[in-house]
Design goal:
CATH superfamily of the largest domain in chain A: Periplasmic binding protein-like II
CATH class of the largest domain in chain A: Alpha Beta
Radius of gyration of chain A: 27 Å
Helix content of chain B: 55-70%
Number of domains of chain B: 1
CATH topology of chain B: MetI-like fold
Number of strands of chain A: 16
CATH superfamily of chain B: MetI-like
Strand content of chain B: under 5%
Largest interface: A-B, 52 and 44 residues
Distance between the termini of chain A: 95 Å
Shape of chain A: globular
Number of strands of chain B: 0
CATH topology of the largest domain in chain A: D-Maltodextrin-Binding Protein, domain 2
Number of domains of chain A: 2
Largest sheet of chain A: 6 strands, mixed
Structural class of chain A: alpha+beta
Strand order of the largest sheet of chain A: 2-3-1-4-13-5
Distance between the termini of chain B: 41 Å
CATH architecture of the largest domain in chain A: 3-Layer(aba) Sandwich
Oligomer: heterodimer
Shape of chain B: flat
Chain lengths: 589, 309
Amino acid sequence: MKTKRFLSMALVALLASSSMLGCSQNQTGTSSAGAASEGGSTTASESGGTSEVSHDTEMTFEVYDVAANYQGEQIGWYGKVLKDTFNIKLNIIAPQVSGDANSLYQTRTASGNLGDIVILDNADMQDCVDSGLIMDIGDIIYNYENLKEYQEQIDQFNQSMSGVEGGSIYAIPCNMNNNGPSGYVAETAFSAPRVPWDYYSELGCPELKTTDDLLNMLADMMKAHPTNAAGDKAYAISMWKDWDSNCSENAALLTYWFGQQVKDSVLLGYDNTITPLTDTEGGYYKALQFLFKANQMGLMDPDSATQDWTTVCDSKMKQKRVYLFWYNWQNGFWNTPAHGESRENYMYVPVEELEYYQQADSYYGDGRVWGVGSSVDDEKKLRIMEFLDWLASPEGLDYQHASLEGFIYNVNDDGTYTLTQEGQDRFTATIQVPEEYGGGSWSDGNNQINQWIVGSAATNPLTGECYDPSLWASSIEMNMTATTNEWIEQFGAQNEVEYLEGTDQLKMVANINIPLASDSTDIALIRSQCGTLIKDTSWQMVFAKDEAEFNSLWENMCTQLEGLGWGTLTEYDTEKYQAIVDARIAAAE
Amino acid sequence: MKAIQKNKKKWDSFKLFLYILPFLILVLIFSYYPLYGWIYAFFDYKPPKPFSWDDFVGLKWFYSLVETDVKINQLLQVLKNTFAMSAITLGTSWLPMIFAVFLNELKCVRFRKFVQTVTTLPNFISWVLVYSVAFSLFNSTGMMNTLLASLGIISPDEPILFLQSSDHVWLTQWLWLTWKNLGWASIMYIAAISGIDNEMYEAARVDGATRMKMIWYITLPSLLPTFFVLLMINIANFLNNGMEQYYVFQNAFNKEYIQVLDLYVYNTAMGAGSYSVSVAISMLKSIVSLVLLFFANGASKLIRGESFL
């Protein structure tokens, strides 16, 4: 009897304690925040700071990275390079992969430790600095010679952050370069109309003055080629819905053709104007009209409003079922040396009335920044700084942008680089990396941080060329095909950018990178409610039955927007982006 | 002597109380403690800034939902969608029961098992996959349009855009839901049917009852308690008609009719990180659900003389 009673009591106790188990709190990570400011600078030597750090113990850095598409330990060839050079491992935390980016950010910030290295959007970085989550590295950063190269840009960004005192450095911008604030090294504009060269030349390379001419030309093209080679129905224009945020992403992109860029609720013009998105003279309205006309003429893929990016990319763009491309990187889904020889590559077609908005390369950075977490200890801080310095060094950049010497590229007699066959195929095929370099497939082992302190547009002091392999003289030589030659002959310019600069259609704006305030809860709510309405109405307008419905949808949207607080929102955004415009004007002087 | 007995009785009841204590603690932790989170609805909370009393805003977020006519209309439309779709689901909640009854009448066991498996399977497919199936069936060059075109009902150049249609959204969404859930929901009833005393059927058969009569007078009345319990649970979840389904099927053209409360919260607040507003809406939701539950309980008492609470 006694044992029975004892057993029953024990059972009760066990159940009670097990129900509490899930609630123990994680108390770590809060104590070391203040410890980091002491020491530090004494250990890093004046001349470079790399020699005195010991690599005897292996260290793992947690990298909280909003740009990563991979979560977990860095493996493969790049992992081996880091292990061999610094005896470090990277544990990448990727909110994009985690499933719920917002709550991951919220829980990690609430715990007081976001990561050892963090890569964030500018506005989030400002919030995290305000909340004490980021370490001030101003004491030692310029002891590192490669980072010191970018002192102007790093200082400029940190000084424009609010609440940051002189001499303090919290953030290192992503994708900086050394070409100056208005440099642009690419051969293509970010957005411009591009069509299959064989079909365009088949129509006799018609001269296009307006966007209506462009639509008529596309209509002729569709009439001549209603399907692709496999017999699947082709359309001039195909859109997708899953990239939309606060307006239709596809329409927003086309505003580039009208010399403007959508920034939240306003349009920034290359002429330094700021107008509301709902301006009927503005690029967004014109883009909607363009797409509406395309649909009226039967040029629009009817599945546009219901398909996602993967569908349209894999089953349409890669199958030549879409005749108009507008992003420059979109070319990569079709253009190859083989298609170039068969005259099938997508090429720019000049449309006289368009003015293309183009941002200069990100000399000051691209809107994201690196930082060091406030809870790392002194030893780790030095190891991290050493690593960041390497990331900005020519040696580190060659690994990040070009990969392995002797396998992906070779060094020529004059010191420039040439891609090997493996190098040329690295994005289109699965390349196995030899065991001596770390094994595995090349793309699995590629740098999974997916962000760079110095971008590929920067000039490599060792070669005098850009870090970007596609811009090496050897690569441009390799890509001279029948398509390119005919295009050059037809338009009398070496490439798209040269042509557009000749006709003064490429409207370059200087690169500006300053932290803008993140939305307050009120503004965020107005923004999302207005955004949903604009997004939905935009799609309805593109697929409107006739001109009258198109207009009434627009009118109706504008009335409803007023009720949702659109006025407050555009006022807020105008003020916010005035800082950018002012900086651009200053940079142009 | 009496005192000792009384003491023993007290000790016994305390011991009995200890047995349920763990479960009380579980309920407290997982059902009542989270209510503390409601406090966010009264604050202007925005991570990564730590939670502080300086940001107390009172009922601001509740007002912000109904500030202007446009917002009120939007909210009303959302509520209308939620109620309509839940009502359709509730109104047809007898379908799984009937399905189970008819399934039970099938004499060929193998065929019965086959039907049961086939109808249960969709329950385990995620909504994202259901949408990709829907897209490949109903896009402009999908199976449905190809079929209609080859039958000459439509011209191949003018496909019907099923997924873009803003007509009958409530109904089509209900059909998708039923397709996914019917088999799964009937499992409970199949179990209940196997629990019905066989002697009743034998007695009925002796009395000359037909199959329909046996269903009507024995099977259905025996299933009704199960049905009402499930109905109650469904009513309490009236406003929680899910969000994944509507999230994947939503597009610019059907948004007006497909946006239910949960999706509205996601579209307007959660997606933009406005946690406070989301909490405010979900509080309203809990209150409405509570009212509905009491209403259903009262109705059950009135109609059947039995209540559950």
